[in-house]
């Protein structure tokens, strides 16, 4: 079994990729995968150096139709669309797109969301209390970040189900190597485009939300094209739908299956911020990303040719014993925890301050209000997705 088996979604590896990572790391911090015909970077030092190396670019999605291989030509439009997201751009486009959105995501701006997030968390727990149980994913970890990002963007929360379908299709496109995922995303992008073309004229134009700011950037001058606007809206929706859910699900599972750690956290709630970082390190919601060599380079002693797309495995770097003492153990009081769950370098997660705040409020409130919280299943199924790592459901009682 190699990294390709994980990438092609072998269920046992999707549920627990860490023994595979450890075995591969034993061969070296960078290994060549014959089935994928490329390199896989697993070591902490090598992943962090690679993600900030300007010779490794983020423009790994076909942009113009003439870059798309013949077999994929019918889908050229979707690659062109997705390639306009900041996640897939290098400077100067990346700098411009990130600049337009980043003001809304500074720690100071995010702090103004604290009361809103606390209110949503309390409402979700209030709704579950009479049932003495819930599916943490469906009833808590999913609705929390989706409601928050809908409010920040300024889109109607009543349309959350559509946003979920579009986001899920985008996550499937990124994290599963299946052709029908491309077709589904094409349909979703057509719907999203129609939806926002209808919504935009209903806006007054002075709204103090993220969509308002982006629309003003699109209208005034050439700061943002319509395709860039729609492509980055789906990125924000998907980032708000697919990742924080799994921070809460994976983290809660890790804590509930380790009673001693849970007990420490209950006894010392001041450890909550450290515990959230440790949950992110221990079972990262985004397991890997990729970059393309724009110039010849060597990682460790492996020569990488120009044009090659290589894998950077954040989930493996986070368990590297050269960086973390006792990496396979969850330690809610771990210090100097410079994990790579949010990536590194110019594409470091824009939403990290928001995800951290949501995670901290979620864990603090769940533990405070539900003293008898416990898992109901020994093994809950994982999402069939190699990049986005999380549970399909997580039933608990209290
Ligand atoms: C626990 C939750 C989250 C995790 C683990 C996470 C993880 C990541 C990672 C690993 C990257 C870098 C990918 C790469 O380098 O290729 C990234 C980028 C990004 N994330 Fe997050 N994310 C989370 C939550 C969020 C939230 C809530 C938002 C906003 C609503 C968000 C918005 C973004 C954006 C816009 C980028 C692209 C940044 C760029 O290209 O400059 N993320 N995220």
Structural class by SSE content:
alpha+beta
Distance between the termini: 40 Å
> Which molecules other than protein and nucleic acid are bound?
protoporphyrin IX containing FE
The largest sheet is: 5 strands, mixed
User: How many domains?
Assistant: 1
DSSP summary, beta strand count: 10
Strand adjacency order, main sheet: 1-2-8-5-3
Beta-strand portion reads 5-15%
Top CATH class? Mainly Alpha
Taking all Cα atoms into account, the compactness measure Rg is 21 Å
Mean of pLDDT: 93
Fourth-level CATH superfamily: Cytochrome P450
CATH topology: Cytochrome p450
Task: Please count the helical segments.
Answer: 19
Helix content: 40-55%
Annotate the secondary structure layout:
Elements: H1 3-7, H2 11-15, H3 18-27, E1 30-33, E2 38-41, H4 44-51, E3 56-57, H5 76-82, H6 93-102, H7 107-111, H8 114-128, E4 133-135, H9 136-141, H10 143-153, H11 160-175, H12 179-199, H13 210-219, H14 226-242, H15 244-256, H16 259-267, H17 272-282, E5 288-293, E6 297-299, E7 302-304, E8 309-313, H18 314-317, H19 352-369, E9 374-375, E10 395-397
Parallel strand pairs: 2-8
Antiparallel strand pairs: 1-2, 3-5, 4-10, 5-8, 6-7, 9-10
Helix pairs in contact: 8-10, 8-19, 10-14, 11-12, 11-14, 15-17, 15-19, 17-19
The protein binds protoporphyrin IX containing FE.
Protoporphyrin IX containing FE binds next to α10, α14, α15 and α19.
